[in-house]
Every structure is written in C-alpha cells, then in structure tokens.
C-alpha cells in the first residue's frame, strides 16, 4: 500500500475537581485500564493512546490544540467517567479540527447492588456526564460520532474501529492530490464538478497536466528498467499470447511498462496519490494506459478514466480507509436481465482494479475499439465474490451528493473467451429493479468506487465529517 503516515488516536477523559483528588486518581487509573483493554481486545486498525484527564477549560483547550497540531493524531475519543460541566468544553471543542468520538461507556458492567453507595454513584456517573457533554456537542453542531455500550463489548469495538477508518479518511482526504492528464471526456456530464468546492469541502488538490508532460517523463525510462519490470510481471501474471506472436506481444507489454514507470515517477515527484487519463487525449502515446493504471492501483494510487477526477480522488480516499484491500474504480457496463438472475456486469475498457482479482491476472494484448492507438496491454481476471457497496460522487450544481448502493458480488460462472477485460458481477440491493431505478433517479454515476471490505457506517461517518448529502440504497 502506498505509504501514509502512521496515525494514532487519543483518549481524553473528562471530570471536575468537585470530587477530590482521590476520585480523580481512580478515574485516571480506570481510564488507563480501559485503554489497555481496548488496545488488547478490540483489534483496532490504529492504536488508541491515553492522553489526559482534563478538569478545567484551559486543560481541555490545550489538549484540543495539540490534537490539531500533531500530524500523527487522527482524532480524539472522549469519555465522561464522572460529571464534567460542559461549559468547560466549549473553548477547546470549538478549536478542534479533527474527528471526535464520544464514547458513552462506563467502568463497571453491572450495578453492584449489595455495595453501591453515593461514593460509587459520584465516581461512576457516565449516564449523567454523557448527557451534559452531549448537549454542548449538539449545540455546537459538531459532526461527532457517539458510540454507546460497555467498553468490553465487541459491538463497541467494531463501531469504534469503523469510526477510526472514517477519521483516517477525513484526515488523509486533506492530502489527496490528483494529477489529471487531459480534461474530462468531451460531452460527458457526470464526471464534471466544482474543483474549488472539492478543495474546501474535502481537501482535494486537483491539478491539470498536458499528456505531453507524461510523454516527456516516459522518454527518460531506460530499457533496463523496462526489462526488470517485465520480468516481475512474468512472475506475477500469466502471459497470454493468444493470436499475437511473441515479439509483438512483448513489445506491446513493454510499451505499457514504459507508461507505468513514467507515470509512477511523475506522480511521486509531484506528491500525487491519484490520477486520471482520457483516451481522447493521447498525443505522443502509443497506447492508452491499461496495465500501467492497474499496477498503480495495486500500489494504492487512486484512478478513474475519462478525466473523472472526483472518482479518482474518491478511489484514493476509499483505498486509504480500506488499506487497499478489494477496493477500486468500477463502471456499470451491461445488464443480464434473465428473470430471477438479474445482474450488472462491472468492468471498464481496460483499467479494472486488480485488488478485486479472484483469479490470477493474465496479461492480454488486444485491440481497443476506441482511442485509435496501438493494442494496449491489460490485466484480465474475474472478480471476487462477497457483500460490498459502491459509491458515486455527484455535483448537483448547488452541492455535492454522495450515493451508496450495497450489492452482492458474484464470480462469473461462464467463460467469456472473447472478452479481453476484467469483469465482476453485481446484484444490487434491495433488488435489481429497485436498486437501479433509485440509483438512476438520484443521478448516480456510471463511474463508482466499490469496496468489499468497508462497511456502510465507515462511508456514512466520513460523509458526516465532510457535511456531504448522502443517498443510501440498501
Ligand atoms: Mn468510464
């Protein structure tokens, strides 16, 4: 996976001085014990660190300033072990610029009826403190997450883990830089969008380059570098010559590898983590990037075709949240409308993400009907089965909209000897007709980012953090 910086989450426990130092000591001990237990039992994707017990407005402000300032901190979890008057939280919470999770939990699981007294009640009053604290977050209109339950409950662990992924998405979204080679495909509507608003709302940088800039980079790639990657590919994939003679095949694969190395170098130098291409803009290129894109997807680069920078950035975002497992750019292509076995074939003209591959990818060199260039090399495979969801981002003119449709993916049973692209089969939820009708009605695009690993909660929590309208078809 293309590297991101190491991240941690901080836990801050709230209280006040009314209860005396002995109670505060106990609060701190319990919190440390809870954090240790969570890290051991919860299988979090990122570590949770105990940061501080806070009892004054200044302490709260200081810790929130540090959360903002420290790049390694992706978000903060707060716990009200006791009652912490919420006016104390206003100055610090107003400054907070990172995701906040309010963990409504408590130290004990069961009420000890035979020993409970007022000391116990004062020490363990999350039910009381949660409401006071929650009020001020609601009043400040924070997009915070609330997780309720005992901290040893696996459901709580799962909810916290999902929130961590959406928080990582939120902070990493600020670092997404998309290089677009060429503009959007002529006359296409859904791939357009307001780049200034995307920078403000999601933190995305979207830069244009002429394809000649890539061609120039490719001209510096050496034959030795190409040979090295060719050998790597020979070990990773099956080389499928089909009707091509060996020289023709290898030459075309090597031309594609030149694109790959040039692209990677260009993106690395500019700090880009996503990119787009457009088959209408290939001046100086021998082939449309195919296998080159797919191999960069496998490394974690976001991508979408036809200049679709929104989907490319979304691809990178979701790859970061999914740790680049079974997540990538997809396109709705063609329907199977047999009653009782309706489905959509998902593919693209070349660039299907190999993180979806169920079968070992085969390298195929085949003519491409559009683009008017030489036969591009591409990876061909069948996609994995499983429950997943797909996401599309639309510019509605007044605001951005995020659409999500859950689906069941199936590995194709039939061979498709004449189909030279990777393919995946989806059955949309709640059923074929309703899923597709609602998708079309709300303007859902043909370019999406699909995932077989991220839950709906992760996507919706991220959407809440960036204040984007959502339409969910489940
Ligand atoms: Mn497309």
* Largest β-sheet summary: 6 strands, antiparallel, barrel
Count, helices: 14
Overall geometry: elongated
Count of the domains: 2
> What ions, cofactors and ligands are bound?
manganese (II) ion
User: Radius of gyration from the CA trace?
Assistant: 25 Å
Unreliable spans: none
- Percent strand equals 15-25%
The CATH topology label of the largest domain is L-fucose Isomerase, Chain A, domain 3
Number of strands: 19
Spatial strand sequence of the major β-sheet:
11-12-17-16-15-18
State the helicity in percent bands: 25-40%
Structural class of the helix and strand makeup? alpha/beta
| CATH architecture group name of the largest domain | Alpha-Beta Barrel
Distance between termini? 30 Å
CATH uppermost class of the largest domain? Alpha Beta
What average pLDDT do the residues reach?
96
Q: Concise description?
A:
The chain has two domains: 8-173, Rossmann fold (3-Layer(aba) Sandwich), CATH 3.40.50; 177-473, Alpha-Beta Barrel (L-fucose Isomerase, Chain A, domain 3), CATH 3.20.14.
Q: Can you put this structure into words, describing what you see?
A:
The model has no long low-confidence stretch (mean pLDDT 96). Strand 6, helix 7 (195-202) and strand 7 (205-209) form a beta-alpha-beta unit. It is built from 14 helices and 19 strands. By secondary structure, it is α/β, with parallel strands linked by helices. It has helices at residues 21-41, 57-69, 90-95, 118-123, 126-139, 154-173, 195-202, 211-219, 223-236, 246-270, 291-299, 309-321, 432-441, 456-465; strands at residues 8-14, 48-54, 73-80, 100-104, 145-148, 177-181, 205-209, 238-240, 274-276, 302-304, 327-336, 343-347, 362-365, 377-380, 386-395, 400-410, 424-428, 447-451, 469-473. It is elongated and about 85 Å long. The strands form 4 sheets. It has a 6-stranded antiparallel beta barrel with strand order 11-12-17-16-15-18. A 5-stranded parallel β-sheet has the order 2-1-3-4-5, sandwiched between helices. It has 2 domains: 8-173, Rossmann fold (3-Layer(aba) Sandwich), CATH 3.40.50; 177-473, L-fucose Isomerase, Chain A, domain 3, CATH 3.20.14. The structure holds manganese (II) ion. Manganese (II) ion (MN) binds next to loops.
């Amino acid at each position: 996976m293309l590297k991101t910086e190491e991240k941690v989450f901080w836990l801050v426990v709230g209280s006040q001085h009314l209860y005396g130092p002995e109670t505060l000591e106990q609060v701190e001990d319990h919190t440390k014990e809870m954090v240790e237990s969570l890290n051991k039992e919860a299988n979090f994707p990122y570590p949770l660190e105990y940061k501080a017990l806070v009892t004054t407005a200044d302490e709260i402000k200081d810790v929130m300033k540090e959360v903002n300032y420290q790049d390694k901190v992706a978000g903060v979890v707060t716990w009200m072990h006791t009652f912490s008057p919420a006016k104390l939280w206003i100055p610090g919470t107003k400054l907070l610029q990172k995701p906040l999770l309010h963990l409504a939990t408590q130290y004990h699981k069961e009420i000890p009826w035979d020993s409970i007294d007022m000391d116990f009640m004062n020490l363990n009053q999350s039910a009381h403190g949660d409401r006071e604290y929650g009020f001020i977050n609601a009043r400040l209109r924070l997009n915070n997450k609330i997780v309720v339950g005992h901290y040893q409950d696996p459901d709580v662990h799962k909810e916290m883990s999902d929130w961590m992924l959406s928080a990582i998405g939120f902070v990493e979204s600020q670092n997404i830089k998309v290089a677009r080679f060429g503009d959007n495909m002529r006359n296409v509507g859904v791939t357009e969008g307001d780049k200034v608003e995307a920078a403000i709302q999601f933190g995305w940088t979207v830069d244009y380059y002429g394809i000649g800039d890539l061609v120039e980079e490719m001209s510096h790639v050496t034959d030795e570098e190409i040979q090295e990657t060719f050998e790597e590919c020979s070990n990773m994939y099956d080389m499928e010559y089909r009707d091509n003679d060996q020289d023709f095949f290898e030459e075309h694969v090597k031309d594609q590898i030149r694109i790959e190395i040039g692209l990677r170098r260009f993106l690395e130098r500019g700090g880009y983590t996503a990119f787009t291409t457009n088959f209408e803009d290939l001046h100086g290129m021998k082939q449309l990037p195919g296998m080159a894109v797919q191999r960069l997807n496998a490394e974690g680069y976001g991508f979408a075709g036809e200049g679709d920078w929104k989907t490319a950035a979304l691809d990178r975002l979701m790859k970061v949240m999914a740790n680049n497992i079974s997540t990538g750019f997809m396109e709705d292509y063609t329907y199977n409308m047999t009653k009782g076995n309706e489905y959509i074939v998902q593919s693209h003209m070349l660039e299907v993400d190999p993180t979806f591959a169920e079968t070992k990818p085969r390298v195929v060199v085949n003519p491409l009907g559009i683009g008017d260039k030489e036969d591009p090399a591409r990876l061909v495979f069948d996609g994995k089965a499983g429950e997943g969801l797909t996401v599309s981002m639309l510019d509605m003119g007044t605001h951005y909209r995020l659409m999500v449709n859950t689906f069941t993916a199936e590995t194709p049973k039939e061979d498709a000897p004449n189909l030279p692209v990777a393919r995946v089969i989806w059955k949309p939820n709640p059923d074929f007709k309703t899923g597709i009708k609602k998708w079309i009605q709300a303007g859902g695009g043909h370019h999406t980012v699909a995932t077989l690993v991220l839950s709906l909660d992760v996507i919706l929590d991220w959407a809440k953090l960036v204040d984007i309208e959502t339409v969910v078809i489940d």
